UniProtKB/TrEMBL annotation:
Presence of keyword Transferase: yes
A molecular function (GO) term: precorrin-4 C11-methyltransferase activity
The protein's annotated pathway: Cofactor biosynthesis; adenosylcobalamin biosynthesis
Keyword tags: Cobalamin biosynthesis, Methyltransferase, S-adenosyl-L-methionine, Transferase
Domain Tetrapyrrole methylase: 1-207
Entry-linked NCBIfam families: cobM_cbiF
Official protein name in the record: Precorrin-4 C(11)-methyltransferase
Swiss-Prot/TrEMBL GO biological process terms: cobalamin biosynthetic process; methylation
Gene: cobM
Family affiliation: Belongs to the precorrin methyltransferase family.
């Protein structure tokens, strides 16, 4: 059986209990070595085989999986964060489907939620934002024109931007145009939950300078929006005057 397992953002304890149990039972682990902390592999049994996919192609990864097709071995494809976000798992699953191989996906904690936790903020606040946009800046991987960063920022909701800090100046330029202000709060979280985690707080007008001063050029989340700082309304859910199925509101 093949399992796609989300390893979480970094901290080895942020993998799910189910993910950890499957990892402990794995005979073969193909892990994203450039992103997944190798401390995860210390939970594997002593005789497991490991493959670092950082130096592998899709074809090579699938070849390892297919070679075990007729065995009872457990194969774990260990992805960083949650594999459903920028995990490139669809192309792997399509190839496995061609070989009529069974697989399962175990979700994980994404770096965008880990980053919000690191700065102790909530993406969705009443009368501030009820929407989170997860996106990235175009680079060698293109982005559909309809999803240009400036257009997305025009919604003025909370944003979590992956894989883009290396182009922070262009990111900022597009966001300023979209939000219509350079005074929007921003947090850049480098390697959320890792021992070397760094948090840089600022505004669109100064965040690029701050990020460069810290020497940050990769492995970062860019969080943008008024959820980071500012006024908000109290939630109705726990308001004494709000009635719902489990509680009668009082005046």
């Amino acid at each position: 059986m093949i399992y796609f397992v989300g390893a979480g953002p970094g901290d080895v304890d942020l993998i799910t209990v189910k993910g950890r149990r499957i990892l402990e039972a794995a005979d073969i682990v193909i892990y994203a070595g450039s992103l997944v902390w190798e401390e995860h592999l210390k939970f594997c049994k002593s005789d497991f085989q490991k493959y670092n996919s950082a130096s592998m192609t899709l074809e090579q990864v699938i070849s390892v999986m297919v070679s075990e097709q007729n065995s009872d071995k457990i194969v774990v494809r260990l992805h960083t964060g949650d594999p459903s976000i920028y995990g490139a798992i669809r192309e792997q699953m399509d190839e496995l489907d061609k070989h009529h191989m069974e697989y399962s996906i175990i979700p994980g904690v994404s770096s965008f939620t880990a980053s919000a936790a690191a700065i102790k903020k909530e993406f969705t606040l009443p009368n501030v934002s009820q929407t989170v946009i997860i996106t990235r800046m175009e680079g060698r991987t293109p982005v559909p024109p309809e999803e240009d960063l400036e257009k997305l920022a025009s919604h003025k909701c909370s944003m979590a931007i992956f894989l883009s800090v290396q182009d922070i100046e262009n990111v900022v330029a597009k966001l300023i145009k979209g939000y219509g202000s350079s005074d929007v709060p921003v947090a850049v979280v480098y390697k959320a939950t890792w021992p070397e985690q760094k948090i840089v707080m600022g505004r669109l007008g100064n965040i690029a300078e701050k990020v460069k001063a810290e020497g940050i050029g990769n492995f970062s989340q860019i969080l943008v929006g008024y959820f980071i700082e500012g006024e908000y309304e109290r939630s109705l859910l726990y308001h004494p005057g709000f009635t719902h199925a489990f509680r009668k509101g009082v005046k």
